[in-house]
């Protein structure tokens, strides 16, 4: 754009502003101020979210002497990868990550499978006490799992199926120490966040036009065939969102994993023990009487945290397009 065109544009702008009695100028100033405020608000929110992660990355590559050097703030003076080696050793990283991938993947698939069926049933069918059972689903969302932890422990420690097992064998079954209780809970829609998945899927199916199913019935499809071939393909957005939520929450869960999967090495559980293992390493291996300092312990914990969330970041990088599309589609339909 040449100088003459710019001058003509500004002359046209001020002419329009004069005709509007200054309204155009006031509106332009308000829009500019709004953009400035929005920029600083978004920048501040992004900084609050990303700054702790950047801080952990900086600490994770610092040698121990840099942690107590007042001149070192962000960029380490002595770069090292020993922190990652120690954290990986304490967590038995590769074996633990393989276990975590397997458990998170199987649990997420099981949860989404059963929650899809239940959510579709709540959205499309009428049955006795439907509102009561959906209120129970809401209670599963509202009530924290710690409230029923004692009941869960006793139930699976003395597991019995309607008294049949005790009648046949004379005693109950102890399911503690195995992954079976958690898989049973997930299959019964009582796993981690299952109530939320049922609610989201139910809301999605409620907004699908009933004419779609009626057309399938007219074409000769039964209820099951309509659900599998007509409804499920259209529900890919919400199912993708729920699956990613289920996978990530299971990956970082410490409550259910510690209660039911304690004998299986998982990243979330191993991370909780990394500080204690560092202290034992400093005392018994390096023969330091005082163990690890608080600052160095936090450094190794931060390094372990990064190693735990790194696979999730990779997952998001590969799945971000489908994930964002899933959320936007679900938001429009809900």
What does this protein structure show overall?
By secondary structure, the protein is mainly alpha-helical. Among the domains are: 51 residues; 181 residues, MetI-like fold (Orthogonal Bundle). It has 17 helices and no strands. The longest helix is centred in the C-terminal third of the chain and has 40 residues.
Short descriptors:
mainly alpha; MetI-like fold; disordered C terminus
Shape: flat
Distance separating the two termini? 46 Å
Beta-strand segment tally: 0
Strand content: under 5%
Which runs of at least 5 residues are low in confidence (pLDDT < 50)?
330-334
DSSP helix fraction: over 70%
Order of helices and strands: HHHHHHHHHHHHHHHHH
Which class best fits the helix and strand makeup? mainly alpha
What is the fold named in CATH at topology level of the domain at 92-272?
MetI-like fold
Number of helices: 17
Please give the CATH architecture of the domain at 92-272: Orthogonal Bundle
CATH superfamily of the domain at 92-272: MetI-like
> What do the pLDDT scores average to?
84
As a whole number of angstroms, the C-alpha radius of gyration is 28 Å
Main β-sheet description = none
Briefly, what CATH class of the domain at 92-272? Mainly Alpha
